[in-house]
Sequence to fold (176 residues):
Amino acid sequence: MKKWIVYVLIGFTTAGSASAAFWPFGSKEEPKELPPAEAMERPMREHQGSPGAQRKRSQMSEVQRAEMKANRDAIHQLAEAARNETDPVEKEVLVDQLRVKLTEGAEKMQAEFRKRLEKAEGDVAKMRQRLDEGEQNMEQRVEEHLQALLSGEKPLRREGKRPNDAPRKKHAPAVE
Fold:
């Protein structure tokens, strides 16, 4: 009973002090303005893991990022021009240009998705092969392991990809 009362009091105190900065009544100071959204953005978290670890996802280069921004700006400018155009013939020309640009972008995305799908299908084929091999040898491996345990031997450890028999890391879920 005492515990939940303490928790409630802590919650009220925390909430009260947090909202006091924005509460304009009863304060002789001017109310503080909220910072703009750009200032409130959090910096990107750094990659967690060993110092030499590479991200699985390739990062965009500045050239690619600038190209994408220029393409997006061109599309928005075309859309704005099409919305503001009063001549139906000119408007149709602008809409066709916009359609061509959007189609090019969609085709690029589809090609990228197709490439990712082909890679995933290759990975699935490798996994199926490992599964089939494991099912064929399962009884033999179980019997070997059983005999090793009954004889008191330490089971053989497979040589893994971890250097120096480093223990597996437990990853915490990403919080954003």
User: Anything to note?
Assistant: The chain has four helices and no strands. Helices lie at 2-20, 37-40, 62-84, 88-151. The mean pLDDT is 77. The CA atoms of residues 39 and 78 lie 31 Å apart.
